[in-house]
Amino acid sequence: MRENRKTQMFELAMCIALLVSAVVFTRDYVQTRDRLIAEWYPVEVYGFSTEYGFGEDSVWLDSEELAEYQAVTDEYNSGVCYELLSPEEQIVYNAFEYAWDNNYNYIYVVDDAGYKDGRDITDIVTLLSSDSPLLQQNVDYKLWETDMTFSEAIMGELAEKKIAGTIIEVDNFTMERTETVLTAVEEAKKIKLDFSEATTDAQKARVIYDYVVKNVEYSEDEASSAYYEADQLYDAVVEKETICDGFSNMYSLLCNMNGIRCYEKVYDPDIIEPKNTTDNGEDKESPAEEDKTPQNTGEGHTWCVVMLDGKWYNVDATVTQSNDEDTMWLDFKFGFSDDMQLYENYLDGALPECQTCLYDNYLVVEGYDDFVSVVGDAVLEAEDNELYVCVKNTEKGDTSYKSYFQEMAYYTGSSVYSSTIDSGYVHLHHIELR
Questions:
Q1: 3-state SS of 172-224?
Q2: Angle at which helices 121-131 and 87-101 pack, to 10 degrees?
Q3: Contact 226, 176 (CB under 8 A)
Q4: Strands across the sheet containing 311-315
Q5: Minimal CB count within 10 Å: which of 82, 97, 158, 283?
Q6: Alpha helices, DSSP H, located in 50-140
């Protein structure tokens, strides 16, 4: 009897212990589950889809997956602009490439995925288009700030949260447009470039430049309202008729194909603030009298920057070939410095600088005071029969300095041609020596 009572007491104690353990376990389980649900947050998410609603065919990738992504067309990508970005921004850059490669024209980016702390999405897609000759500038896209519901099963409980994010619709990332671009790439591979006498990168880059400017014409029609519908690289390579984007896309593609690092710069008058460009160093009497003449006027523009023998140089293959006067600028448009560039890139100061000109017959004159000595000496010492002179810090509409050129031409028997550039920043002149 006594043994049975002991057994009963032991069993009761065990039951109580098990019950207490179950209560504690359940309490801890519930607390842990509730804590995990409360703390749960979706992995840094990027969604890709061919439709706005991100349905069953959508693909979702996290940051680690995108950080390792390598685009199909990376061999044509300069990577110069990519290197400017933080690791988080590079992931957004890669997300665009992933969408492009797979023809997803809708991208979803969770707000905390990194880009909000750095460059805006508009900057990143512009940098991608500057790196890649296959993606034209001013990519047509739309942004929507929205909430999306994410769910996750946590310890048997379904967790749901609405997370703020941005949906990006990119019209260019369609199968039809990708096929058009890849057709242009295949056609570009068939172009026969004669490098037989080119022993340096500069000489090879000049062979490419000469081919582009002599075989592609500028199209005023494409500069019209149909801009976004056109495929500039295809039009340049296949149709042989395009605008500045097409010239730049084709030139940078051929350079990168032939082992010469090249990327594109863009001037957009809607992005760049006007700046005082006629300041000659004198103090203004008052802020109200400050000259607000913009450096950049008119429409936007795209050109190239190329690495030649360890240095960066501007190359602008967009040359209007409608009359003979324009052909005089063919040489000047190759291998010039930032000092001689009319347009300012919206990322100037961050991108590599073009500090020098490739040729000695490119001159930069800081105002009129240095004009006579600098240009005069150059005329006397020039071995070539041409000079290109950039006169900086000139008042808009001021043509009085042209008398210097006329006098010099008279005494040296030279011919002087003035450009039509009159922006309040630079005046370009072409001098043919006799």
A1: CCCHHHHHHHHHHHHHHHCCCCCCCCCCCHHHHHHHHHHHHHHHCEECCHHHC
A2: 60
A3: no
A4: 262-267, 301-308, 311-315, 334-336
A5: 283
A6: 63-67, 87-101, 121-131
Q: Which of 120, 110, 116 is nearest to 146 (CA)?
A: 110
The H or E element containing residue 392 is strand 386-392
d(CA 395, CA 410): 25
Q: Which amino acid is at 228?
A: Y
- Are 343 and 314 within 8 A, CB to CB? no
The pLDDT of residue 289 is above 70:
no
Torsion angle (degrees, nearest 10) of CA 261, 239, 420, 270: -70
Structure-model confidence comparison of residues 171 and 196, the more confident one: 196
Encode pLDDT of 329-371 as tens digits: 566 788 988 877 767 666 666 788 898 888 877 877 776 667 7
The CA distance from 227 to 235, in Å, is 12
The CA distance from 157 to 91, in Å, is 32
Is 311 a residue whose pLDDT tops 80? yes
Q: What is the model's pLDDT at position 106? A: 92
Length of the chain: 434
Number of Cβ within 10 Å of residue 226's Cβ equals 9
237: pLDDT strictly greater than 90: yes
User: Sorting pLDDT into bands at 50, 70 and 90, what band is 252?
Assistant: very high
The residues, any chain, with a CB within 8 Å of residue 251's CB and separated by 6 or more, are 133, 208, 209, 212, 262, 304, 315, 317
Structure tokens at 215: 């075989």
Can you list the alpha helix ranges (DSSP code H) found in 190-342? 201-215, 232-234, 244-257
CA 87 → CA 37, 111, 346, distances in Å? 29, 16, 22
Amino acid type, 45: V
Alpha-carbon torsion (328, 318, 71, 188), positive or negative = negative
Residue 150's SS3 state is strand
Rounded to whole angstroms, the Cα distance separating 88 from 52 reads: 25
